[in-house]
Amino acid sequence: MPKQSGLHKNVAITRQNERIIRFLLSERVPESGSLLKASNPWELLVAVILSAQCTDERVNSVTPALFARLPTAEATAQATQEELEELIRKVGLYRNKAAAVLGAARRITDVYGGEVPSSLDELLTLPGVGRKTANVVLFGAFGRNEGLAVDTHVGRIACRLGLCDSRDPARAEKILTNLFPREEWGNVNHRMVRFGREVCKARNPLCSSCGAASFCPKHGVALKQRR
Ligand code: SF4
Predict the structure, then answer these.
(1) 195 is in which domain, residue-wise?
(2) Where residue 188 sits, what CATH number does that domain have?
(3) Is 213 in the pocket of ligand 1 (CB under 6 A)?
(4) How many C-beta atoms lie closer than 10 Å to residue 46's C-beta?
């Protein structure tokens, strides 16, 4: 008998979805944690804001100097937009991101006493923070599963595996949080992000060596794209 752990207790689950759940929680989709370097909630929040449409490696290349110069939300709140732009210039969309980091720093300083808030509702009041960023920070900094962060990897894989019919992150989050038990949400995000980077890639998914090949409705999608 297959192991029952990891299945959501309150939802009727189809046989196909059960296969997908077991697969995504198995050792065939290893959990790796976040690749963003951060040593406290503020650093993680900044790193996640900077990571939008940018690789983790690029973010990790600018954050050491940024955090050495501006180590806290309070210190960052005193900086100018130009100063922040200079520090994160290597990251794409750096002007918008500098404004978001500055706005978040000022609100955290003014409203939350310099501490990153630890609830979804409070995080969503910060400039530049949407559900994905808030969920990553809640799990990574506070170990809280208030939602499931849906980024480009998670949305793509959910669609390919037939869980979603659109890439709408809110819809994907609802479907995934109904399928997986709450204690697995952060873990499932990390697994799907790594699986998306290493196997089910956007352009050239490695279907021939994928553990989901026998039941994935999009098996061979790379070949179909080339035709
Ligand atoms: S079989 Fe291909 S499309 Fe399906 S999950 Fe695996 S890599 Fe992705």
Answers:
(1) 15-30+150-226
(2) 1.10.1670.10
(3) yes
(4) 29
